Amino acid sequence: AGALDFYTAQSALVESMITDGDVFAQLVRSKNDLPMVRFFGGEYVGDAGFQPQENIHDGVIYNDENRPIAYRVQRDPSGASKDFTDVPADDLIHIRRVHRMGYLRGISWLGPAIARIIDVREALDNELAAAKLNSKIAFTIESEEAGRVGLGANLRSVNTGVDGESYKIDRLFPGVGHVQLKQGEKLNAHEFNRPNTNLAQFVDHLTREIAYSIGVSPEVIWSMSGLGGTASRAALQDADMFFGGVRLVIEQQFCTRFWRYAVWHMIKSGEIPYVDDWHKVRFVPPPKVSVDFGRDSKAMLDLVRNGLLSPRAYFNAL
After folding, report:
1. Is the CB of residue 41 less than 8 Å from the CB of residue 13?
2. N or C: which terminus of the chain has fewer CB atoms within 10 Å of its end residue's CB?
3. Partner residues linked to 87 by β-bridges
4. Whole-angstrom Cα distance, residue 106 to residue 196?
């Protein structure tokens, strides 16, 4: 669709892979025979409502060794239409993290954590609703008289419209004036006690469960406040391992394969000359995040000066 280039596609593929479990890139050529790639989400690969072949599961057609040989690409991801095309596996890049050996499709990385994500959302929504309701009450009146509750104003029944039930609510009058209290009544300023003081600790606990389900330190995706220098380095090191694994999936499954596909067709068209090692490629990732740039930079320079790190590797790391 012309919406992505080789670099922005990588971020989009990561997001789709994490949320949906897998994403596909189809190797195609333009009318001018230029190499292109067509992206589509995992929902477009399915059985199309029936299984004419024996070895097909979730849109993956596989051989007796469980190796995918084709993918059933549907025009309608809802499965309502039986219009589909079986695309050979050589022309389709299936981008996913292998969750378990033998699985033919990818699983959303958020799958194990979705229940807790909903819990956090509901807890925050409920607390927000309570805070809004809490902010509407300016004062309360305490009374020793039986049946006197709320603001002590004129009580009246109002039909809520739910199952025909009626509840007594206080009728408030706008304007400024002096509250006339009866004997035994006391006017109290309403205490605004939202959000709950235990909310942050509770949400933090749920967030940790979410993070560990995904496979990354909770400090990385939630909050690093309160961590010291050593703990921050440990969290960033853990994050580097996690995102390094994500990078390898994109690099090995998409970047390298599309690179070879594109370069080979450019060689065939004469745009670039043929060389024996045309298929060799190495990708340079973004620099690692550091909490102590000065110390880390000095350590790397010492490695270069002592011949333990090549200048090329040093500059690539930057």
Report:
1. no
2. N
3. 71
4. 39
Q: What is the DSSP letter of 228?
A: -
Residue 59 and residue 42 in contact, taking contact as beta carbons nearer than 8 Å:
no
Residue 107 tokens read as 């699983």
Q: Which one, of 111, 138, 124, lies nearest residue 17 by Cα? A: 111
Q: Which two tokens stand for residue 141?
A: 């009146």
Strand pairing report for 60-62 and 68-74: antiparallel
CB proximity list for 63: less than 8 A, separation 6 or greater = 55, 69
Stated pTM of the model: 0.74
**Is residue 104 within 8 Å of residue 58, measured between CB atoms?**
yes
- What tokens appear for 102 in the block? 């033998």
CA distances from 178 to 142, 181, 184, 187 (A): 16, 9, 17, 11
Task: Report yes or no: 143 and 182 within 8 Å, Cβ to Cβ.
Answer: yes
Residues 6+ apart with CB under 8 A from 211: 113, 217, 218, 220, 221, 222
Report pLDDT digits (tens) over 186-243: 777 777 777 888 888 888 888 888 888 888 888 887 877 777 778 888 888 888 888 8
14: tokens are 């990561």
